[in-house]
Design brief:
The chain has a four-stranded mixed sheet, with helices on one face. The protein has a four-stranded antiparallel sheet with strand order 5-6-8-7. Strands 4-9 form a two-stranded antiparallel ribbon. It has four domains: 85 residues, no CATH class; 139 residues, no CATH class; 128 residues, no CATH class; 36 residues, no CATH class. It has 423 residues and is an alpha+beta fold. 34% of the residues lie in helices and 14% in strands. Keywords: Methyltransferase, S-adenosyl-L-methionine, Transferase.
């Protein structure tokens, strides 16, 4: 079944597409081999480690606190040309929001800039000290000044202006940089300067270098936060398994006892992070093991947060009525703010937007039919019906032959060989 689904997934992926598959340690090695066979080793992107829980100390050997998320591209060369796998620094948006508050508070047209800078700097330093966890990715951007062009506060960190270590002396950039006060050459870094002399002079004119009290110290480079908004995604994804808590808030009525509704649902934050690794906001996300519907919620929340136009397609076999009672009901409730029978729920998106009302979801029920070898009339009827519906779903679909239709259908509901497992 997995083999057919993956082959179909590859066909459906665009040239810019990615596939993410969550798997535990028991099957990770086998799945990696299968993915290499179907997608090609050259299209392997990453084997992400999902760090999902804290050490509980209950195991007699080791505590398993992670799973894997395999990522492959349809065409790795294509995605390497795109701005994928870039994420905002942790705390970047929070810092900018705080700076905007300081701008409104201190930088008025008739304000004393020196006094404003002093008071705002003090308030900014206190904000950093009080929010270390929230701002963990930007704590080194702790220097503060007023941008003369925009008349707004900006923050920066002190960066090294030294060059890269090289055994080739011809690659080391050595020249004199004069101290602005003493007019004497400053100390040159051990590996020379990072920039050529012309570029260095441009940075000096723009005020991008921080000089010491005299020429005996090497200057530092100003690294402004707005120039380092994004960083490359790490191979370790740290998202705690809060999926069950979210699902209970959505599906458990208010003032009712929580139930174990679905085993191990993924946290919405994890799926949102994976989707955001693709820079475009107009993509279609297909989840053909829909489970509890976390992907649907993640897509709708992201669109609400960044004005995206992403779409999702979920597929489930409705085993034990999960598709109707869990998946569809979850989607209905986060859009409507109540259950399909009018039940009140505990979940809210946020205080301003309690529910995700601006979403339209179509639900389709796929029917299966069993055929005997000699049932030609039924086969002909199903074939015609399949052709018509394939074209409705995809106007560009073209029939190659009757087997083409069979393979399309069997990938959705693979048969089990009666001789499977027998010698």
């Amino acid at each position: 079944m997995m083999n057919e689904r993956l082959k179909l997934a590859k066909q459906l992926l665009s040239q810019e597409g990615l596939i993410f598959i969550s798997i535990d340690d028991n099957e990770q090695a086998y799945l990696k081999v299968l993915m290499d066979e179907i997608f090609g080793e050259d299209n392997f992107v990453e084997n992400f480690i999902w760090y999902k829980s804290e050490h509980k100390g209950l195991s007699k050997t080791t505590s398993n606190i992670h799973e894997y998320i395999l990522c492959y591209a349809k065409n790795k060369y294509v995605i390497q040309q795109l701005n994928y796998f870039r994420i905002s620094k942790n705390g970047y948006q929070e810092i900018n929001d705080f700076l905007e508050k300081l701008n409104h508070k201190y930088l008025k047209d008739d304000s004393d800039h020196q006094s404003s800078l002093k008071n705002a700097t003090k308030e900014f330093k206190e904000y950093l000290r009080s929010n270390k966890n929230l701002l963990s990715g930007v704590l080194n951007f702790n220097n503060f000044e007023i941008d003369s062009e925009t008349n707004k506060f900006v923050v920066y960190s002190r960066g090294d202006v030294g060059g890269l270590k090289s055994e080739n002396s011809n690659l080391i950039k050595n020249y004199d940089v004069l101290h602005p006060v003493t007019k004497k050459p400053v100390r040159v870094p051990e590996n020379g300067w990072r920039y050529n002399e012309e570029t260095m002079q441009e940075h000096i004119k723009k005020g991008n270098l921080i000089f010491g009290v005299d020429e005996t110290t090497t200057p530092n480079f100003k690294r402004y936060l707005n120039e380092f908004k994004n960083v490359t995604q790490d191979s370790v994804l740290k998202f705690k398994s809060t999926g069950s808590d979210t699902l209970k808030k959505i599906l458990t009525p208010k003032n009712s006892k929580s139930e174990n509704l679905f085993p191990y649902p993924k946290p919405v934050s994890l799926i949102k992070n994976l989707i955001k690794l693709i820079s475009r906001k107009d993509i279609t996300i297909l989840d053909f093991f829909a489970g509890s519907g976390t992907t649907a919620q993640a897509v709708m929340e992201l669109n609400q947060e960044d004005d995206g136009n992403r779409k999702f397609i979920l597929v489930t076999n409705n085993q034990n009525n999960i598709g109707e009672d869990i998946t569809r009901e979850r989607i209905y409730r986060i859009i409507k703010g109540k259950g399909s029978n009018g039940e009140t729920i505990k979940w809210e998106f946020n205080k301003q937007t309690k529910y995700l009302e601006n979403n339209l979801v179509n639900v389709f029920e796929v029917k299966t039919s069993k055929l005997t070898v000699n049932d030609f009339d039924k086969a002909r009827e199903l074939k015609i019906n399949a052709e018509e519906n394939f074209i409705k779903l995809n106007p560009e679909w073209k029939k190659k032959n009757n087997w083409n239709i069979y393979y399309e259908l069997s990938s959705l509901s693979p048969y089990k060989d009666e001789n499977e497992g027998n010698d």
